[in-house]
User: Which sequence fits this backbone?
């Protein structure tokens, strides 16, 4: 077998992982989760969730990936636990599943960059969204977005993903800072800040049953955990750097981008008197253009800001889509010995086909999203936690220590995984299953929306 690829630099690995983590979840979901769940108080709970759940789980995925050095399914055989290959399989399936509709949304974003240039996206936001989000236009942009994703993944780890994300992630941060500075100059921005940042701890106490799982779920989702993506990315680590330091850097950057996005989105909406609404995949495409259209300057300022904003969303979505395709491609390459480029093209086309229902009807997209996020994701995370905590055990500590001498941290980490993290994840699984299978009117029922 030819030499397996590795990341060229440590920063390259960190940026690629941040690229995966930073996506629509940060730019849209996070600000709204925060403001809908008690503002700064939610922020505190979320930060705790990242620290207590997110970081232990990302380290768990890293330790599997770096130790095994192969794709996320074969990894379990390499670690002498073939019976656990289903863990990687759920994750890879989740990645493929998610890629199919993520790329449909990526296609909308692509369309919105163009629509901001021409101004069409701002002229009649609701009508524009209806026209581009479903049917043939959505299929076309879905194909375009996937083609770009395939192109980058086909070039491989170092010359494709690492090179691309090295430019993409800094661009996201710089552009978001510029947008946040602009948003701060808008009259009425302070109301947005208040909405986002004012703590209301009483809400947390009252609604603990919904807010705690929301914060913990957001932490897992936002760090791209449970999709075999972090296992796969860590499998390309040829060096022995501190996994703990890398995991911390990734989690901190990801949270920073989420907060930054909140400082852009909420002042913008409040300054223009656009109600933040309920969130959801579609809302960003109506509420933001509506707010942008209201900006002074005869529409030009709004269009310019729109181009930058949707370009940021595009880059964020692309760097996440790359990681989704890579998890699946790594499997095809490592396990079946297929070359990278044909694997990326073939699997990309399969993802395109699976995404067609989502491109035809947003109700299908919601359904795919619901199954992925509430069924695959928690099950995969649960099995990773059980595997690393109770099956790998000391071997995982050994892997964590490679490249750093952390005497006390290893056991503390393992016991956190074995007990606290396990408990919380079981709780999330139980709540999600309740919504999926036992609550007919909950957002994500097991019967697809369009067929109900
Ligand atoms: N973390 C991404 C976001 O915040 C969403 C996501 C979840 C994801 N799991 C993933 C992206 C796996 C890529 C791969 O938007």
Assistant:
């Amino acid at each position: 077998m030819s030499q397996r690829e590795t990341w060229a630099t440590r920063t390259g690995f960190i940026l690629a992982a941040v690229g995966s983590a930073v996506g629509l979840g940060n730019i849209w979901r996070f600000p709204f989760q925060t403001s809908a769940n008690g503002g700064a108080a939610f922020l505190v709970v979320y930060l705790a969730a990242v620290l207590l759940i997110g970081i232990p789980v990302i380290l768990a995925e890293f330790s599997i990936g770096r130790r095994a050095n192969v794709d996320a399914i074969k990894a379990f055989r390499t670690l002498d636990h073939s019976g656990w290959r289903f863990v990687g399989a759920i994750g890879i399936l989740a990645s493929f599943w998610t890629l199919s509709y993520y790329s449909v949304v990526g296609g909308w974003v692509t369309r919105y960059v163009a629509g901001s240039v021409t101004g069409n996206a701002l002229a009649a936001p609701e009508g524009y969204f209806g026209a581009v989000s479903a049917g043939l236009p959505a299929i076309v942009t879905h194909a375009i977005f996937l083609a770009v994703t395939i192109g980058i993944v086909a070039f491989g780890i170092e010359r494709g993903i690492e090179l691309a994300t090295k430019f993409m992630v800094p661009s996201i941060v710089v552009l978001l800072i510029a947008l946040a500075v602009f948003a701060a100059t808008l009259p009425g921005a302070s109301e947005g800040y208040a909405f986002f940042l004012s703590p209301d701890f009483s809400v947390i106490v009252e609604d603990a049953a919904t807010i705690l799982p929301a914060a913990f779920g957001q932490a897992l989702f936002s760090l791209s955990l449970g999709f075999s993506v972090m296992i796969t990315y860590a499998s390309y680590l040829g060096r022995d750097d501190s996994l703990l330091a890398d995991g911390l850097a990734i989690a901190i950057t990801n949270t920073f981008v989420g907060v930054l996005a909140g400082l852009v989105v909420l002042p913008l909406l409040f300054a223009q008197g656009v109600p933040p609404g309920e969130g959801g995949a579609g809302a960003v495409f109506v509420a933001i253009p509506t707010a942008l259209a209201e900006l002074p300057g005869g529409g030009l300022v709004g269009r310019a800001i729109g181009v930058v904003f949707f370009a940021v969303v595009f880059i964020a979505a692309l760097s996440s889509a790359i990681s989704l395709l890579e998890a699946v491609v790594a499997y095809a390459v490592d396990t079946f010995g297929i070359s990278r480029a044909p694997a990326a093209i073939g699997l990309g086309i399969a993802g395109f086909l699976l995404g067609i229902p989502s491109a035809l009807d947003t109700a299908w997209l919601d359904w795919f999203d619901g199954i992925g996020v509430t069924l695959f994701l928690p099950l995969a995370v649960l099995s990773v936690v059980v595997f690393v905590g109770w099956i790998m055990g000391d071997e995982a500590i050994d892997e964590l220590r490679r490249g750093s001498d952390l005497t006390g941290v290893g056991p503390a980490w393992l016991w956190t995984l074995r007990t606290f993290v396990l408990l919380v994840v079981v709780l999330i699984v139980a709540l999600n299953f309740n919504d999926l299978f036992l609550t007919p009117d909950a957002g994500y029922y097991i019967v697809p929306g369009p067929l109900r």
Notes: The two ends are 50 Å apart (CA to CA). The pocket of tryptophan is lined by residues 20-21, 23-26, 221-222, 224, 227, 229, 320, 323-324 (CB under 6 Å). The chain is about 80% helix and 0% strand. The mean pLDDT is 90.
